[in-house]
Design brief:
Oligomer: single chain
Radius of gyration: 19 Å
Largest sheet: 5 strands, parallel
CATH architecture of the largest domain: 3-Layer(aba) Sandwich
Number of domains: 2
CATH class of the largest domain: Alpha Beta
CATH superfamily of the largest domain: Alpha/Beta hydrolase fold, catalytic domain
Helix content: 40-55%
Strand order of the largest sheet: 1-2-3-4-5
Number of strands: 5
Structural class: alpha/beta
CATH topology of the largest domain: Rossmann fold
Length: about 280
């Protein structure tokens, strides 16, 4: 069963991976994310907990299918879906294995800082500009967490409109309630909590050039959480020249993606060997 990355993605968003699993004898469920394709609902008003609940509902749906062994249901999550897989599988005896494709295991606010810094560096911003932008983001997250300091933040936001880094950071022009909502439903989400209750085998695959997922910190956090769960059936692999999405790149910058021709060598062999 496939779990989506961020954005309004449909059942066809997983590239060759459904066909790969089919070729190895697995049944596959790939559904339209809520608010995308033929699915109802409003993605913009949905929380990460809502999306994880959708995944759990899909597991129950799969269990009713006569051609599926209900004791052999696995999750394959990409990016955001990779860390939501932990929530779907947490304490869930229906889940037999997890494949995490480059999903981050840090609190969402930390991942936002990492990705923004990487994008600004790729955009040629100076060290001082990057530091100023990250300081602004940290202030945003602090106001979202505490509810204090909105007036000063709102003034800074207006002053920052002319900054080169402004388009790289999140904006909340409405009021403090909007920011508090996003802190509560998105930025404060910590996938490590659910992972501490995952006991099924886990395969986690990453690219060394990933500019969206902080790979070393994610691997360290996953190891610590799974140790707490008492789960020793865990396999990690970091592919040389792999970008976010596990295409083979040179720098990891988004501008090179249209030129990329293949997934990282060994990706599907690694999947095949582990699944067998």
């Amino acid at each position: 069963m496939f779990l989506h990355g961020s954005g309004a993605l449909n059942r066809y968003s997983f590239g060759p991976f459904p066909d790969f699993f089919l070729s190895r004898g697995f049944g596959v469920l790939a559904y339209d994310k809520r608010g995308a394709g033929s699915s109802t609902g409003n993605l913009a008003q949905s929380t990460l907990d809502d999306l994880a609940a959708d995944g759990r509902a899909a597991v129950q749906f799969v269990k009713q299918h006569l051609s599926i062994n209900p004791g052999k249901i696995g999750l394959c999550g990409a990016s955001q879906g990779g860390f939501l897989a932990a929530s779907v599988a947490s304490g869930n005896t229906d889940i037999d294995f997890i494949v995490n494709l480059y999903g981050m295991y840090v609190p969402v606010w930390q991942q936002e800082l990492y990705a923004a810094e990487a994008e600004m560096r790729m955009g040629g911003l100076s060290g001082d500009e990057i530091a100023e932008a990250l300081g602004f983001m940290k202030r945003e997250f602090d106001v979202g967490r505490t509810g204090k300091g909105w007036d000063k933040l709102a003034a800074l936001m207006q002053q920052a409109r002319s900054k080169k880094w402004f388009d790289y950071v999140p904006h909340f022009f409405s009021d403090v309630n909007e920011l508090r909502y996003y802190w509560r439903t998105l930025y404060s989400y910590d996938p490590r909590v659910a992972l501490q209750k995952v006991n099924c085998p886990v395969l986690a695959l990453f690219g060394e050039l990933d500019k969206s997922t902080p790979v070393p910190q994610t691997v360290a956090n996953m190891k610590a959480a799974l140790r707490k769960a008492g789960n020793k059936d865990v396999t990690f692999k970091i592919f040389a020249k792999g970008i976010h999405g596990l295409l083979e790149g040179e720098t990891g910058v988004n501008s090179e993606i249209p030129r990329l021709k293949r997934f990282v060598p060994g990706l599907f062999d690694t999947l095949t060997n582990w699944l067998q």
